[in-house]
Amino acid sequence: MEHDRDGNLLKTQDNRKVHKKNFFLEMSKRLSKTGFATFSWDRRGFGKSQGSPGDYFTEVRDARAALDALCSQKSVVDGNRVAVFGQSAGVYVASLLAKEDIRPGAFILSGGLYSDYKDMMSFNYHRVRDYAKKSSENRKWVEKNDLWGLAVGINLDKMLTAINNGEKEFMVQYNGHTWNVLLNQKVYSSEFAPKDQFRNITSSVLIIHGEADLNVPVQDAREIEKELRAWGNNDVKLVTISDADHSFQQTAPDEDTRLRERMSLESFKRPYKEEYFQSMIDFLKRRFAYET
């Protein structure tokens, strides 16, 4: 989940310099040209937001406060025509918000997780570990470009055991580096499993996912659609974007480059797939009977 209101990752666990992708800003530019207003904010502890970074559940409170602030602008905002957008972990936050608040008339679930968090962690971090194992050259490259991913990948099996044992923190260690990771047991409990939160969403939904997503498998989007329909929500549209990654940026043509760019975050320099933004615009126009 991005850190600032423009949709940038400002800090990594291994203190890498990250290229600004301005994900939300680019989205806002396109939506505003079509007549839709957008509202985003800096997460706690970043940009102009005070406090310390919270967890998914404090994010829900912040999202609701943002919704309150938006709907209070009655002179410029129609409270009956508000959509909530969630990207990546933001899809989980949006699903939890839907349980508490019935105001949103639509939800856009972008790159969202359906699988268990443990499966998602394995999908992401074991891949880094396995890539580094292939050769000494690969290991050196990963140590330089994704030290955190490698450290977690090597320690992940022990971390998952700690989670299963109900531990609240875990020490990740690799090659003289140490990170203390807080384990939020709540998100690993069956009650708060990602797949079980979609039942909360009863209004119109656009599910959108990159077919080349290396953070969350595209199959998760298909499972989200099934889950929503199973709970009686038939106003659901699924769109998958070819050659698009988790941020809906154009992917490299070959698998090795795609994987390296995912680990190094060089993928943030690639252009966005315009089909992604147009899919959102088309959905919002249909849902709110908007006329240009």
The whole-angstrom Rg is 19 Å
- In whole angstroms, the N-to-C terminal distance is 32 Å
Percent of residues in β-strands: 5-15%
- General form: globular
Pairing-aware structural class of the strands and helices? alpha/beta
The biggest sheet, with number of strands, parallel, antiparallel or mixed sense and barrel status, is: 4 strands, parallel
Domains, number: 2
Q: What's the CATH class label of the largest domain?
A: Alpha Beta
Mean pLDDT level: 94
Number of strands: 6
Q: How are the strands ordered across the major sheet?
A: 1-2-5-6
Question: Which segments are poorly predicted (pLDDT under 50) over 5 or more consecutive residues?
Answer: none
Provide the succession of SSEs.
HHEHEHHHEEHEHEHH
Task: Tell me the helix content.
Answer: 40-55%
CATH topology of the largest domain, what is it called? Rossmann fold
CATH superfamily assignment of the largest domain? Alpha/Beta hydrolase fold, catalytic domain
CATH architecture grouping of the largest domain: 3-Layer(aba) Sandwich
Number of helical stretches of at least 4 residues: 10
Overview of the structural elements:
The protein is an alpha/beta fold and 292 residues long. It folds into two domains: 23-116 and 193-287, 3-Layer(aba) Sandwich (Rossmann fold); 117-187, no CATH class. Helix content is 43%, strand content 12%. The strands form two sheets. The chain has a four-stranded parallel beta sheet, with helices on both faces. A two-stranded antiparallel ribbon has the order 3-4. The longest helix has 18 residues, at 147-164.
